[in-house]
Design a protein that fits this description.
The protein is an alpha/beta fold. The chain is built from 13 helices and 16 strands. It folds into 3 domains: about 190 residues, inorganic pyrophosphatase (n-terminal core), CATH 3.90.1640.10; about 50 residues, no CATH class; about 130 residues, Roll (Diaminopimelate Epimerase, Chain A, domain 1), CATH 3.10.310.30. A 6-stranded parallel beta sheet has the order 3-2-1-8-9-10. Strands 11-12-13-14-16-15 form a 6-stranded mixed beta sheet, sandwiched between helices.
């Protein structure tokens, strides 16, 4: 009988030793929580694990244990090949010796002599047995780890674990559960099945997983909150998940730079009442002038714009990393903002979605985006 996706995920994590973990660029709480939780779990099982994200974790998540273990590249997982041409001079024996900070490779010729011209070096294959991609709808969302190393995803089995309905099913193994609130919620059952030990999830792992669930449900305020998500969250708290730390650092502690940036967002607010949405924009200069990091705008749409009354959704446009990012939040159950995100090749959930336009600015793309959304809203009103 064919194994279920969950069983396949558990089996490959059990049998593989060298594992690469990846998540999407511009990581949110679920991306950070899920990759960190799986990293800590596999390390605890004695696996050789590398966790990579295109962008550093936002400062708000610095309360998470070993957050610095998530790196921005995985060059350290690749073999380094030293090749010696033995077509003219044969090798008799090979040995190596570490002298101080140097590794000396000593090759004794059978006859004759080797010369430096006979030696070449090259990057070899990546030293991983499987790649696990978390919380990403497609490989492109991973960013530079995929863009710079596409061969990895064809040479090594890819495991795709996600909860978004628009997932591309890009893995050899795809476990996409669209009924889950978050990828972190999915991982709880993975870890239970992987170890069979109800006490395996410790305080640090539970805190990372709880971070993902709480942020993707906006502290259980969003409509995607389910009885299962509340049960899983309670289970993680019982395991020692530091729920009060999560609430304190994510929802109750804001640097002055964040407050200044949010003030800019509110001052730029536009009310498109005829088309039933509100929107605002943050330029690159807004981040610079408020001394705010690009990640500090992430909460403004949930905590401020989403409370707007009498509209279907809120939109935040921002300039980040040479791109225009759009974040959408529905205020009405009858609105599917993922359909709007798809107008710009984005995606997400009916209640929360996002998109980006590469190599662009708000001056170049802002008016086009708003007009396209107005046309969409008009067409929906007539339907």
């Amino acid at each position: 009988m064919e194994l279920s996706p969950k069983q396949q995920v558990v089996e490959i994590l059990k049998t593989k030793q060298r594992i690469l973990l990846l998540t999407h660029k511009n990581p949110d709480g679920d991306a950070i929580g899920s990759i960190l939780a799986l990293y800590l779990s596999l390390k605890k099982l004695g696996k050789d694990v590398v966790a990579v994200c295109n962008d550093p974790a936002p400062a708000v998540f610095e309360y998470l244990p070993q957050i610095k273990e998530i790196s921005q590249n995985f060059a350290n997982g690749r073999d380094f090949v030293i090749a010696l041409d033995v077509s003219q001079v044969k090798a008799d024996k090979v040995m190596y010796k570490v002298v101080g900070d140097k590794l000396n490779i000593i090759i004794t010729p059978a006859t004759g002599n080797f010369t430096p011209e006979m030696v070449t070096t090259a990057a070899g294959s990546f030293n991983f047995e499987t790649v696990v991609v978390l919380d990403s709808t497609d490989l492109e969302r991973i960013g530079s780890p995929y863009d710079k190393n596409p061969e990895v995803f064809y040479e090594i089995p890819v495991v795709n674990i996600d909860h978004h309905a628009g997932n591309d099913q890009f893995g050899k193994i795809n476990w996409v559960d669209i009924t889950a609130t978050s990828t972190s919620e999915i991982l709880v059952s993975v870890l239970e099945a992987l170890t069979g030990d109800p006490k395996f999830i410790d305080e640090d792992i539970a805190t990372a997983l709880l971070t993902g669930i709480i942020t993707d449900t906006n502290s259980f305020q969003n409509n995607n909150t389910t009885p299962k998500s509340l049960t899983v969250a309670a289970q993680l708290v019982a395991f020692g998940g530091r729920q009060q730390d999560i609430i304190k650092y994510i929802y109750k502690t804001k640097p002055l730079s964040t407050l200044r940036l949010w003030g800019r967002a509110l001052s730029n607010l536009r009310d498109e009442r005829a088309d039933r949405f509100v929107w605002t924009q943050l330029y690159k200069k807004d981040y610079l002038e408020t001394s705010a990091a690009e990640t500090e705008s992430s909460g403004v749409i949930d905590e401020l714009l989403k409370t707007a009354a009498g509209v279907d959704f809120a939109l935040l446009l921002s300039e980040k990393n040479g791109e225009v990012h759009g974040s959408l939040r529905a205020t009405s159950k009858n609105t599917d903002v993922s359909a709007i995100a798809k107008l710009f090749n984005g995606g997400g959930h009916p209640m929360a979605a996002a998109f980006q336009i590469d190599n662009s600015t708000l001056e170049q793309s802002g008016a086009m985006i708003i007009q396209k959304i107005k046309d969409y809203q008009s067409s929906q009103a007539k339907a």
